[in-house]
Specification:
Blueprint: H1 52-79, H2 88-103, H3 123-131, H4 134-137, E1 141-144, H5 151-159, E2 163-167, E3 176-180, H6 189-192, H7 195-201, E4 203-205, E5 215-218, E6 222-223, E7 230-231, H8 237-248, E8 257-260, E9 284-286, E10 291-293, H9 311-316, H10 318-331
Parallel strand pairs: 1-2, 1-5, 5-8, 8-9
Antiparallel strand pairs: 2-3, 3-4, 6-7, 9-10
Region (Disordered): 330-352
Pfam families: 5-FTHF_cyc-lig
Protein name: 5-formyltetrahydrofolate cyclo-ligase
């Protein structure tokens, strides 16, 4: 049974995107980028011991600031005119889902789940369903989001002797980290599935890394099983990560995108006609009770859409700034910038 969360927002049942429709090309070009030089927190024994307590304390502090800002953004969006604000409908659905999960006690720690990819009762069971997929069994490299409900998927990836590709928190310190079970002791695999463990044991990569990702796992706040339309927590990192992997040539339209959610997160009121060109649809949904193949008609993003990226977001993510500078230098053309937005001060992570 699907849940309708939004009030006065419904997809037209007659509306369908042409599955053969190709979206306009992004206003940028692919380039091989030299990886950024930064302090590598994952190396231990070179005179710079990893301080896990300090790392986690700072991460939690920055995440709290981000969530506080997102809460304020959500409040303003929800109170705005839905007819003139293109993002208001998304925040209405998110808030009702977060409220629902807390009220029915479907939520798991960290709580409250508001402004997070919500952890949920049965997340390990949903991960087990995902692990049974042919797409997972045959994958060599799996990209998994760093959120709590997907922790078991990260563990199954590493314990299954696959490479785990996971983004660094909110892309603050770089791009992605790669972890391989061959370089981990059996008793450290669980730790390697946490944000601290990724920083401690992962190998940071840049945009010139030659890697092929066989499966993408992303978190969701709500997802439509009939169309594959998905809502995240509202910061757009899944879309940025997807776009940069496209530029690297690491993924293409055929790369499966999977999400794991509680059954209550299945909704039927994400209107296709209101989705943005950069929104990432999902091909497969795994819940604690079932597996759903969406056969999504929604085209997948083709890269970074610079005209949708705010100057504030660009300023906070160093690797995006580097990519944009190099593309502009190589092409001799200035890339567009999207409208301004208010963001929390989470990008400038102190060097140790």
């Amino acid at each position: 049974m699907m849940i309708r969360l939004s009030s006065g927002i419904a997809a037209n049942p007659r509306f369908q995107l042409n599955p053969f429709f190709n979206p306009q090309k992004p206003t940028s070009l692919h380039a091989q980028i030299v990886p950024l030089r930064r302090k590598n927190f994952s190396k231990i024994g070179d005179g710079d011991a990893f301080d896990a307590v300090a790392y986690e304390s700072e991460r939690l502090s920055l995440d709290a600031a981000a969530m506080e800002n997102m809460a304020e953004t959500a409040r303003k969006e929800i109170e705005s005119d839905q007819e003139t604000d293109p993002k208001a409908w998304k925040w209405i659905i998110r808030k009702k889902m977060w409220d629902l999960m807390e009220a029915r006690n479907y939520a798991m720690n960290p709580r409250p789940v508001h402004h997070r990819i919500p952890n949920f009762v049965g997340a390990p069971a949903a991960a087990a369903k995902l692990a049974e997929l042919d797409a997972f069994r045959t994958a060599n490299v799996v990209k998994v989001n760093p959120d709590s409900p997907q922790k078991q998927i990260r563990f199954l990836t590493l314990s299954g002797e696959k490479k785990l590709l996971t983004p660094q928190p909110r892309l603050r310190t770089g791009f992605f980290s790669v972890l391989e079970s061959d370089f981990l002791k059996p008793d450290t695999i669980r730790e390697a599935c946490t944000s601290v463990g990724v920083a401690k044991y992962g190998r940071a990569i840049g945009l010139d890394e030659k890697i092929k990702v066989d499966l993408i796992v992303i978190g969701s706040v709500a997802v439509n099983p009939q169309t594959g339309a998905r809502l995240g927590k509202g910061e757009g990192f899944a879309e940025l990560e997807y776009g940069m992997l496209r530029y690297m040539g690491a993924i293409d339209d055929s790369t499966p995108v999977v999400t794991t959610v509680h059954d209550c997160q299945l909704v039927d009121d994400i209107p296709l006609e209101k989705l943005a060109i950069h929104d990432v649809p999902v091909d497969i949904i795994c819940t604690p009770t079932r597996v759903i193949f969406t056969n999504t008609p929604i085209p997948k993003p083709q890269g970074i859409y610079w005209d949708k990226l705010s100057p504030e977001k660009l300023q906070q993510i160093r690797i995006l700034r580097e990519l944009k500078r190099r593309l502009e230098k190589e092409t001799g053309c200035k890339l567009p910038t999207g409208p301004s937005e208010k963001l929390p001060p989470t990008a400038d992570r102190k060097r140790r």
